[in-house]
Amino acid sequence: MNSVSTSFTHLYGTHHGWLLGLLRRRLNDRWEAADLAHDTFIRLLSRPLAETDHVRQRSYLATIARGLCIDHWRRRQLERAWLQTLAEGPEALQPSPEQRAIIVETLYEVDAMLARLPKKVSEAFLLAQLHGLPYKQIAVQLGVCERMVKKYMAQALLHCAILEAELDGMLVQ
């Protein structure tokens, strides 16, 4: 065993129980807590911890876990909203469980992409795509000129194209 795997094993053995307890209290679900604790340590494999101080190690783990919790809650919120919308539709148009999982994952990716965009860009995109507003009305609502709305939409659509390519596995990160 090399020193990296030895230190990771030691870190896992030292802090896993503590992290699991922290996540169980935060999530109120032992299975989700176990999943997020596992994901936290998986993140450490790509971003090794240089700290040797016990308190700083836990702080670093808690920071990673907090981010994963936020992602988890955001994903659940999106999933609930979509399932509520879906339930309001006709039963004949209900997707299969596999299609539901794919759609929820895609919604999560689009939400994450929109969160990375500047506020006015994402607002313009949502006003155009979800509400069907013409650029002129979007410009008035955002307090910008119509030309800026076109720039915002181009930026958002570029990010959508990149996201689609990533989802299709065409881009290597």
| Percent range of helical residues | over 70%
Main sheet summary: none
- Ends apart, CA distance between termini: 29 Å
Structural class: mainly alpha
Mean pLDDT: 85
Strand content: under 5%
Count helical runs: 7
Tell me the number of structural domains.
Answer: 2
Which stretches are low in confidence, meaning pLDDT under 50 for 5 or more residues running?
A: none
- Gyration radius, to the nearest Å? 21 Å
Number of strands: 0
Protein name: RNA polymerase sigma factor
InterPro entries: RNA_pol_sigma-70-like, RNA_pol_sigma-70_dom, RNA_pol_sigma70_r2, RNA_pol_sigma70_r4_t2, RNA_pol_sigma_r2, RNA_pol_sigma_r3/r4-like, WH-like_DNA-bd_sf
Domain RNA polymerase sigma factor 70 region 4 type: 109-160
Domain RNA polymerase sigma-70 region: 11-77
Description of the molecule:
This protein is mainly α and 173 residues long. It has helices at residues 3-27, 30-46, 54-87, 97-116, 119-129, 135-142, 146-167. The protein folds into two domains: 3-84, no CATH class; 95-167, Arc Repressor Mutant, subunit A (Orthogonal Bundle), CATH 1.10.10.10. The longest helix is centred in the middle third of the chain and has 34 residues, at 54-87. The radius of gyration is 21 Å and the shape is globular. The mean pLDDT is 85.
Record the SSE blueprint.
Elements: H1 3-27, H2 30-46, H3 54-87, H4 97-116, H5 119-129, H6 135-142, H7 146-167
In short:
This protein has 173 residues and is mainly alpha-helical. Helices cover 79% and strands 0% of the residues.
